[in-house]
């Protein structure tokens, strides 16, 4: 995951970047400061800064996608490796339309369909910031090389026609200034829709279910519409604001995976007014019920099962053994947690109707740093120490134990599900259809159809000639 070392990398660069800004005229300094805030709201640094002591905005971060690994580009003002020779028009086209200076199409791992809504005024401030407030870095990150047919970048022109037609945001005169600001932040700068909206077979957003939840590979971005069962309808405004700023609300949820990264690198730095605007907007979007019968954070209660099973050899199943040895010390035997580790009941990860986030938290751990305080749950998957690493079977067993005793007992996790999440999650249908053997079968079928067509045509011509 991203960046335990990002704050250190940022601090190293701020001196050089700050010296650039300090020497600029006051008007330019103001624009640079505004552009920096906008870039933070847009979470640019989280993707364009490599977690391995990379220089800010110098690229190189490997972004896992269903189509393959996409490497973030260098967006410092380096003329050789970055965007230093981009005009403002070229910069705007790259951010809004996903087309770089060379005319190449970018992949929508860079959320340009959402950034297309950024206003002209803010785009200008972003351009000034990246050109004059960011230190140039002469570093050439790895090039993205997706497998065929996704390697054909020109195909993105068709995709953009279908799914990326947004225009710069226009405030709605019938709404308050706060709601307009929240709309702009949620759907443009912070691009919440990119993760929280489900996608169709071609990986385009299903706008009729906007913000009702979407798969992110190993993780799942939940429903954040105000539906009281499936979404966040029973969260108070204060709870939502606290979650965005800190990633934690006791008795409800804690941020992990991509959401933890958004909190750590973006949301915690936004003004209180902007956070409140986002909350106000989210609380009035159309509610979408995806089938939940009760709120995901309402499941479960303290359980004495761990202590009871400990003294009963006949009840000591495989899931209990993993829980007792790897989980109970931090989350407590009754699952109530402590000051640093959340409770396992009244927890959106264990009460959801989808176990992906519970399993992924076990596989990859939880890391976020807010206001200088680091919250970390160790990983038990591929990044774990050899002595603490758990197998797919063990993770399935402990997940089922937690779900049964503390969370949504209707769910169960198989060893195969854990294996799939360990490998990056279920592949979308579009990706499955482009596997070599599928393409081979498709080509063979097409050839047979063509051959049958010509054979039928020849027979008809022969019949006519008689």
What does this structure look like?
The chain has 466 residues and is mainly alpha-helical. The chain is 45% helix and 6% strand. It has helices at 6-22, 26-41, 44-48, 88-97, 112-115, 120-132, 156-163, 177-189, 192-196, 237-246, 257-265, 272-282, 305-310, 318-331, 348-351, 356-364, 392-406, 415-422, 429-432, 436-465; strands at 62-65, 68-71, 214-216, 219-221, 248-249, 253-254, 366-370, 373-377. The strands form 4 sheets. The chain has a two-stranded antiparallel ribbon. A two-stranded antiparallel sheet has the order 3-4. A hairpin with a 2-residue loop joins strand 7 (366-370) and strand 8 (373-377). Helix 2 (26-41) packs across helix 6 and helix 17 packs across helix 18.
Can you tag this structure with a few keywords?
466 residues; mainly alpha; two-stranded antiparallel ribbon; 20 helices; 8 strands; 6% strand
Question: Concise description?
Answer:
This protein has 20 helices and 8 strands. The protein is mainly alpha-helical. The strands form 4 sheets. A two-stranded antiparallel sheet has the order 1-2. Strands 3-4 form a two-stranded antiparallel sheet.
């Amino acid at each position: 995951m991203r960046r335990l070392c990002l704050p250190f990398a940022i601090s190293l660069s701020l001196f050089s970047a700050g010296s650039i800004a300090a020497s600029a005229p006051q008007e330019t300094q103001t624009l640079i400061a505004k552009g920096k805030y906008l870039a933070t709201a847009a979470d640019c640094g989280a993707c364009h800064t490599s977690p391995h002591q990379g220089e800010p905005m110098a690229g190189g971060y490997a972004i896992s996608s269903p189509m393959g690994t996409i490497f973030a580009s260098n967006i410092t003002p380096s003329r050789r490796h970055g965007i230093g020779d981009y005009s403002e028009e070229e910069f705007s086209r790259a951010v809004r339309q996903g087309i770089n200076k060379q005319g190449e199409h970018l992949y929508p791992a860079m959320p340009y369909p959402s950034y297309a809504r950024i206003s002209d005024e803010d785009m200008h401030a972003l351009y000034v910031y990246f050109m004059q407030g960011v230190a140039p870095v002469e570093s050439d990150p790895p090039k993205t090389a997706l497998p065929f047919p996704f390697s054909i970048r020109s195909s993105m022109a068709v995709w953009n026609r279908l799914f990326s037609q947004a225009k710069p945001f226009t405030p709605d005169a019938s709404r308050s200034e706060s709601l307009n600001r929240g709309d702009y932040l949620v759907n443009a700068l912070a691009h919440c829709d990119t993760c929280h909206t489900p996608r169709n077979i071609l990986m385009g957003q299903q706008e009729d279910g906007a913000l009702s939840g979407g798969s992110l590979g190993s993780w799942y971005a939940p429903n954040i519409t105000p539906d009281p069962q499936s979404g966040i309808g029973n969260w108070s405004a204060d709870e939502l604001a606290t979650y965005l700023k800190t990633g934690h609300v006791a008795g409800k949820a804690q941020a992990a995976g991509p959401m933890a990264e958004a909190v750590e690198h973006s949301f915690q730095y936004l003004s209180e007014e902007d956070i409140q605007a986002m909350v106000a907007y989210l609380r009035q979007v159309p509610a979408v019920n995806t089938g939940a019968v009760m709120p995901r954070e309402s499941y479960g209660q303290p359980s004495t099962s761990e202590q009871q099973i400990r003294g009963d050899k006949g009840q000591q199943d495989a899931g209990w053994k993993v829980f007792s040895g790897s989980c109970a010390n931090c989350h407590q035997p009754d699952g109530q947690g402590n000051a640093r580790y959340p409770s396992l009941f009244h927890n959106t990860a264990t009460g959801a109707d989808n176990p992906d986030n519970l399993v992924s938290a076990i596989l990859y751990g939880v890391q976020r740093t807010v206001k200088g305080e680091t919250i970390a749950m160790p990983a038990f998957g591929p990044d774990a120490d050899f002595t603490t690493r758990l197998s797919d079977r063990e993770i399935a067993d402990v997940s089922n134990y937690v779900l049964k005793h503390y969370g949504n007992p209707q769910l169960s996790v198989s060893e195969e599900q854990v294996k799939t999440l360990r490998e990056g999650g279920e592949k979308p249908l579009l990706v499955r259809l482009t596997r070599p053997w599928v393409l081979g079968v498709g080509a063979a079928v097409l050839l047979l159809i063509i051959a049958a067509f010509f054979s039928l045509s020849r027979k008809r011509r022969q019949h006519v000639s008689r």
